[in-house]
Design a protein that fits this description.
The structure is a homodimer of 322-residue chains. The first copy, chain A, is of the alpha+beta class and 322 residues long. Helices cover 40% and strands 15% of the residues of chain A. The first copy, chain A, is globular and about 60 Å long. The termini of chain A are far apart. At the A-B interface, helix 1, strand 1 and strand 7 of A face helix 1, strand 1 and strand 7 of B.
């Protein structure tokens, strides 16, 4: 939950005068998102989301994110669509921060996803990958295998504060993944952070995808692996094969996976687990003691990593290669 | 900024089924309010605010607050109106907390109020006092003179951590106010926390009052004094007599103050300054080190108190008794 930068009504009114979305009627800071400040804005023409980009998001990446949302929305993906100002631009400045206005999406994220939700997610993810295929811009994934060692070196000596086996677990896994990380599989735009809180449902229908601020160009099946980790484990840390099957089957129905993509899925799942283990570990160790915002527990992802290490083939995720 | 209790979409949908306000379309936690968890809820019938009452608000006081809002809205005060569920009740239970739904008000709070805003506030405050005159329920003000000594005793020994003169300043002032606090002036419903962030404007028009969770039965002119403190000082700590005059003149036009109310205004202004000085001091000393939420600086109110101590008569607030 976060609003890092307050915005005065007077300043926001002036900012909105540069858009054709009517006069400001109300705005409220939203207690969601950990990277940026978000406001729900009501104007004479409807509801919008205003985002002020904080330091953790690199300003040079904003055109990629905003153009991507525009591109995807143009191809039928229900995602926030950047609103152009009168000068035809989607990026402005407000309260000293880069700022953008996007359309508001109805829908709620599901705290306890069912297999049906996982199935809907699988299909939406495949549609996202297909819709992104002709997106012209490129953004390297700073949080893929090439970026992990630096994260590891920055926190390995303190990792024992969280779990005494963590330094060894991560160090050994990192060596394996750096050696065996698959290259040459189909690449394209991936969301890279499609956790349940970034997927909206209305009833059982998936109604939208949000938060494209980790999106990048990377191996598509890595995105599938991130979702397996984020959606198919139970709160008792067991892997739910019914959910895994629903996610994978529905993904493959829309975008069939090649034999090699199936084969490498367990390795990507290990990589996806290591990626979130590392960033959570860094956040956990860096948070000031007594802070009111508790970072997410990195050990959750250590358990997921250990699960994937024991997986023999993609069949263990619930699905025989179709 | 605060959402202390998360609510699952599944649980909120079930809760809303008890109301006649249509199906849930979206909800977002709002980064406002420090006492309760607030959500902006969109349903098929419009926008509403859902409040989950946290521990700092006594459950036995909730009927007073909710009935008061209903009473005031019925008398033309633009404030959030509690929505009754199908059983005719305004108070329910959600996520283990007492919960209520109120109507959504458009409007923005003004970060840098002008004299015109102060004038509009004065009139609205007087209208609030008149509209509350026939409200049947009663709630004592725990944060008036009778409650201050307990707050003081709980923090006096640590007060020097904030300012080495604070213990003496507060101790001496408390003795004066306990002795001289005026009794017998007109009483009624007061808002007791009508800071700029609780007053909405649309353009220059005051469009609504919110957050009645400190409302109580107390001397009306004490509420005026709270507003003088909250609205008429500049960020450099000087008192702006133009703003003071606008607030007082517009109040008195709608609800004339008696000679005795005028005469005692400086004493109430001292009391109002002491009340916020004390609660801010307690919050300041109690906050865990490293916390991300920074409490408000109690020294701001020490400065205001010192200003009022030097005031000779209500004329010093910018207005000759009308």
């Amino acid at each position: 939950m976060a609003v890092y930068t307050d915005v005065a009504a007077e300043d926001l009114s002036r900012f909105l005068a540069g858009y054709d979305i009517g006069a400001l009627l109300s705005y409220k800071g939203i207690a969601e998102g950990v990277e940026n400040s978000n406001f729900l804005v009501h104007t004479a023409k409807g509801h919008f989301i205003l985002t002020l980009y904080e330091r953790r998001v690199a300003e040079r990446d904003l055109p990629f994110f905003l153009s991507l949302m525009e591109h995807l929305a143009g191809r039928g993906i229900n995602c926030p669509q950047p609103v152009k100002n009168r000068a035809g631009k989607v990026l402005g400045k407000l309260a000293g921060r880069p700022a953008a206005i996007v359309t508001f999406l109805d829908g709620m994220w599901i705290r306890r996803p069912s297999a049906a939700h996982c199935g809907a997610l699988g299909e939406a993810l495949a549609r996202l990958h297909l819709a992104g295929a002709d997106f012209a811009m490129r953004r390297d994934n700073a949080l893929s295998v090439a970026g992990w060692r630096q994260l590891y070196e920055g926190c390995r000596e303190r990792a024992h504060k969280v779990d005494r086996n963590l330094e060894t677990l991560v160090g050994a896994e990192l060596a394996v993944l750096e050696r065996e990380w698959p290259r040459g599989l189909p690449q394209g735009v991936i969301h890279a952070d499609l956790f349940p809180d970034n997927v909206f449902f209305l009833g059982d229908r998936l109604s939208g995808l949000i938060d494209f601020y980790f999106a990048c160009t990377d191996t598509l099946v890595y995105d599938v692996a991130i979702c397996l980790n984020a959606w198919c484990f139970e709160t008792d840390h067991s892997f739910n094969v019914t959910k895994g099957r629903a996610l994978l089957a529905n993904y493959a129905k829309t975008r069939p996976l090649s034999h090699e993509e199936w084969e490498k899925l367990p390795l990507f799942a290990r990589g996806a687990a290591l990626r979130f283990l590392l960033t959570r570990l860094v956040d956990w160790l860096d948070v000031p003691s007594g802070a009111l915002v508790r970072p997410k527990d990195p050990r959750e992802y250590a358990r997921k990593l250990r699960f994937h290490q024991k997986v023999k083939s993609a069949r263990d995720y619930g699905l025989i290669e179709p």
